[in-house]
Design brief:
By secondary structure, this protein is an alpha/beta fold. Helix content is about 45%, strand content about 15%. The longest helix is centred in the C-terminal third of the chain and has 43 residues.
Length: about 625
């Protein structure tokens, strides 16, 4: 239920199992005490599937347009009805023979009633023609058409209204790994024993003590695995992209995965999580010595180290000068768009390790007085077309913000490479911010500078949620990408939640509006394009319908005032209305998007004069924008 791959042990003191979780080890008999919405899983799913009832930007505008048109149509109908009634009872309305249809004291009640009904039918017909009944049909058609076409662009729409909401997006908060980058990681730099290793996997000159400790720590402190392929006989590495990169590097250093794991037994594991940015393991070696290995974000592990091992294998004190030297190395790697991972270890007295297994589960693995073993830089190259996609968004008035768990230097380098950060923009205050700094501000303080944020590094899922909430309060239409279970609140909070089809968890997909099937940012841009197409097609339909409606209303209104009769009968008006609302909707609602749509700025959420039909048409015909 935490969203992390951390095992939770169950015993007599804590016997409850959560629905939706999987049994990793052991056996037993289970008694079902709750199902459906009464379970923890059910409560989570109910929370993320709640409809907040908020209307989309297009729905708000359509409601305004429909109300305005309805009021105008009703006013014209009432005015025509009153004029025709007055002319009828004053004897100015003539039949086809040129005789007055009503004469006081002579016309029967039945004839007078029939005349009134005829006039009332004309007034009702005017209202029917004026009100755009075909608008819901046109909206549904264009949304369904766009939804079907978006499948070809690697986007699966789960909520129909998300199509047009994406077209109104003013900002996109994107993950880095796998979305802006390829998620194909390899170790390209290594700093061991106080010197850089070129190439990083060479063992020449590597102190045996460091090699042995690195291989031991990497083989045991991992969620990945290494096995021999049955077909080719080559070693296959499985796990997350980061784990695969580290294990592949260790194999080149001479690691025999199965042999190393057999040399020691695991006493306790602190699984890597997105909050602490590190993971550790306590091992009992065959000689009964206890080793504790840690790996994680380089700057965090470095702060925990008190010693390091030099090229002769001797342990040296981690002086302030050495700390500064290592920090510069980390910053240099990060500036080269590398993800920095550090490895450290320490020994522990066996007597300090709890003997009882239950007590060991709550035991905090020591993480002080560590000895630094290595700092490695992992390269995750940007996707080939991501810079062009970001440029298209920026040209379209959509601000792209990067939210990542990587350190601030790596985040800055990747953002610059992708085009999210422009030259000189990184010097602006709040353009680049760490998650913990953003979290430390009050809600009112965040609202003051949230528009300036371009990159957020070392962010947690909670930071992403706070960012989305702040941007929405500033009036932005926010799209957010996410792939983890912990991203579910942010995906649900955003106007458009975009989950990843390959890396995304089921909970993330359930809480999203659109699933990006290829995890590619370029596909997100295509979704924006289709969303704007929906908006443009609805505008075309309203422009077409209003042209006919205004013509019909004007002809009948002028004729009623001047001659007391209407040239367009009820049947004729209804026939025109039928053709407009069906064939017109079919023709205009299925137009494909054009490149012109990605040049003008987004519509946004703010509502002023654009609710009026005049401005709605003007926005289409003259390019007036009222965001």
């Amino acid at each position: 239920m935490t969203g992390e791959s951390k095992y939770v042990y169950k015993d007599k003191k804590n016997p409850f199992l959560m629905s939706g979780c999987k049994v990793a080890d052991g056996y037993g008999t289970m008694l079902v005490t709750a199902v459906g919405l009464n379970t923890e899983w059910g409560l989570v799913m109910a929370t993320i599937s709640e409809d907040n009832g908020e209307e989309t930007p297009l729905q708000v505008r359509l409601n305004g347009v429909a109300t305005f048109i309805g009021k105008v149509g009703l006013a014209v109908a009432v005015l025509v009805f009153l004029i025709l009634i007055i002319r009828f009872f004053t004897g100015h309305t003539e039949d086809k023979y040129g005789k007055p249809m009503f004469k006081a004291g002579k016309t029967s009640v039945g004839d007078a009633f029939n005349g009134i009904v005829k006039i009332f039918a004309i007034a009702v017909t005017i209202v029917v023609v004026a009100v755009p009944e075909g608008l819901p049909l046109a909206v549904t058609l264009t949304l369904a058409y766009s939804m079907r076409k978006m499948m070809a662009d690697k986007a699966l729409v789960r909520r129909l209204s998300a199509c047009e909401t994406m077209g109104s997006a003013t900002t996109i908060c994107s993950d880095k790994t796998g979305t802006l980058t390829l998620n194909q990681m390899t170790v390209v730099k290594a700093f061991i024993a106080g010197e850089s290793r070129e190439p990083p996997d060479t063992t020449e000159g590597l102190p045996p003590v460091i090699q042995a400790l690195l291989v031991e720590g990497i083989s045991q402190n991992t969620t990945g695995s290494v096995c021999k392929s049955k077909g080719s006989g080559e070693m296959e590495v499985t796990g997350s992209p980061t784990e695969k990169a580290i294990l592949s590097w260790a194999l080149k250093l001479g690691m025999n995965f199965d042999d190393e794991r057999s040399k020691s037994s695991v006493l306790h594991v602190f699984t890597f999580n997105s909050e602490k940015k590190r993971g550790g393991v306590a091992l009992k070696r065959s000689d009964s010595e206890v080793h504790i290995h840690w790996k994680g974000a380089a700057e965090i592990i470095l702060d925990l180290c008190k010693t390091w091992i030099d090229s002769s294998g001797s342990v040296q004190e981690m002086t302030p000068t050495k700390v500064d030297e290592n920090k510069k190395i980390i910053e240099g790697m990060a500036a080269a768009t590398l993800r920095c991972i550090a490895f450290a270890y320490r020994t522990c007295d066996l007597h300090n390790v709890p003997v009882d297994e239950e007590q060991r589960q709550s035991w905090q693995i020591p993480e002080d007085n560590l000895t630094l073993l290595a700092i490695v830089g992992i390269k995750d190259p940007c996707r080939p077309n991501v810079r062009e996609a970001v440029h298209i968004c920026q040209k379209a008035g959509v601000k792209v913000r990067m939210v990542t768990g990587d350190n601030i230097y790596t985040a800055k380098a990747i953002a610059t490479e992708c085009g999210i950060l422009q030259p000189g923009e990184d010097t602006e205050q709040y353009a680049i911010i760490e998650g913990r700094d953003f979290r430390s501000y009050s809600e009112d303080e965040r609202l003051k500078f949230v528009d300036k944020i371009c990159v957020m590094g070392r962010s947690s899922p909670t930071d992403k949620l706070y960012l989305v909430q702040a941007l929405r309060k500033r009036g932005h239409v926010v799209a957010v990408t996410g792939d983890g279970t912990n991203d579910a609140p942010a995906l649900h909070e955003a106007d458009i939640g975009l989950s990843m089809g390959i890396q995304g968890t089921e909970v993330a997909k359930e809480s999203s509006d659109i699933i990006i099937l290829d995890d590619n940012f370029a596909s997100v841009v295509k979704v924006v394009r289709w969303g704007r197409s929906v908006y443009a097609n609805i505008q075309k339909f309203i422009q077409f319908q209003l042209t006919v409606n205004v013509a019909a209303l004007t002809i009948n209104f002028v004729a009623a005032i001047s001659s007391g009769d209407v040239p367009l009968t009820a049947v004729q008006l209804l026939w025109v209305n039928l053709i407009m609302d069906t064939l017109g909707a079919l023709a205009l609602a299925t137009e494909a998007p054009t490149d012109h749509l990605m040049i003008r700025p987004p519509v946004g959420r703010s509502i002023r004069d654009e609710d009026r039909a005049f401005y709605f048409i003007m926005e289409r015909t003259t390019g007036v924008n009222n965001t």
